[in-house]
Model the fold of this input.
Amino acid sequence: AQSVTQLDSQVPVFEEAPVELRCNYSSSVSVYLFWYVQYPNQGLQLLLKYLSGSTLVESINGFEAEFNKSQTSFHLRKPSVHISDTAEYFCAVSSNFNKFYFGSGTKLNVKP
Amino acid sequence: GAGVSQSPSNKVTEKGKDVELRCDPISGHTALYWYRQRLGQGLEFLIYFQGNSAPDKSGLPSDRFSAERTGESVSTLTIQRTQQEDSAVYLCASSLGQYSYEQYFGPGTRLTVT
Done:
């Protein structure tokens, strides 16, 4: 079985500051890793994913995440956040795309 | 194009009643997932449909829960004899197919059992 831990339920940050949202997972098999984002009053949508290859992956809006196999982590980072980044972020893992395991989510609140 | 839709958006029911939740996936998506999200918790996998294959029901928490899918379209999640612990947001997602990693989520149905 697999599981995902997002230790931070809420992360307040000022606009233009850097942010890191932590994600750790446990699995006995190789996994694929994902970050989903849920903006206010919207459904979850894929932000970025790690499938293979380079362990550093990026999104189109400036977020990046690094797969660290030894630490079983996939932390999400952004060097400078915007008000529009305010949302809830979910980390997820899957070994076969049939079943996904999600973390409990981290609410990012960007303040002006 | 149209995204994943779910109905109703909100449902309040009395303990012991049966409820039926509906999901309309994106047209052409052969894979469909149901999740449950309790307050303050992550998404909990319930069931996975892929085309005409037998569904993966391994996440259904009890025999009060069941789900059906008509071909590669509409799915219904039925909860019989609802309990207060069934109160949650029920999310549906669809994807292009068995080897597709990107899920498209619906807005969810908020179920409250009183």
The interface with chain A takes residues 3-4, 31, 33, 35, 40-45, 48, 50, 56, 58-59, 91, 93, 95, 98-108 of chain B (CB under 8 Å). The beta strands of chain B are 5-7, 10-13, 19-24, 31-37, 43-50, 65-69, 75-79, 88-95, 104-105, 109-113. Chain B is about 0% helix and 45% strand.
